[in-house]
Amino acid sequence: MLPVIIVMIGISQSLCVMPMKRHFLTLFSLIWTLTAICQETKLVIKKFNDSKQISECYSVLKSDGKTKHGEYVSYFKANGNINKQVRKGTFRTDDYIKQKCVYKNGEKDGEWIEYSEPGKFKIKGSYEKDKKVGIWQTAIERGNVIERFDFDNKKKLLPIITIYPHYPKSAVDTKLQGTVIVSFQTHEDCSISNISITKSLSTDCDSAAIEAMNIFSGLFKKYGVECQEKTLTHEYNFTFN
Fold first, then answer.
1. Are residues 114 and 208 in the same domain?
2. Number of domains, the chain
3. pLDDT in tens, 89-103
4. 3-class secondary structure, 240
């Protein structure tokens, strides 16, 4: 209904300067155009067997009744009996999105996002006429590593690696917060050496940062690409949420 409201606002602003006959013909033309657009597609909603939960939601061209055109969304099936929640309106369908993308005349065209489980990102990228374009991201290693591939230039990019250090009990007990800075050396084979503390917080927090850096080092060696000889630093923040 929103596009119609916007168009009608535009019409109401034009009434003051538009002759009555012309205003009527323009209004008729707009209504006819909007009706034609609405007739192009029809909404398809599918549900899981013996459940009120939606499994898929998308639009198809009315001309053949099967060619996808518009946003497509599929969902994970929720555990347990959610029919009562659906009836009460307390069930959030968007919490269970599995795949979301856009189709144009049966071809993927636009952003694609996929989850490995509810709320857990798996793959993200873009399509143009059913062809992958731009940079695609894929979450692996329990989400700690985001692999990246540039489909425009047909090459792997350096991954995004995120490791959170364990918050030591001693820091929790004393409510210690702050930052540990670790320096390290990367090599052409994507190995890491010379890990050291350049800004200390506490003995236990420093150890936790080194431990996290060692995990980072293993993942960087496994998934890094086009690595260089460099000395880098990384910050590990210890803060209460």
1. no
2. 3
3. 777 888 999 999 999
4. coil
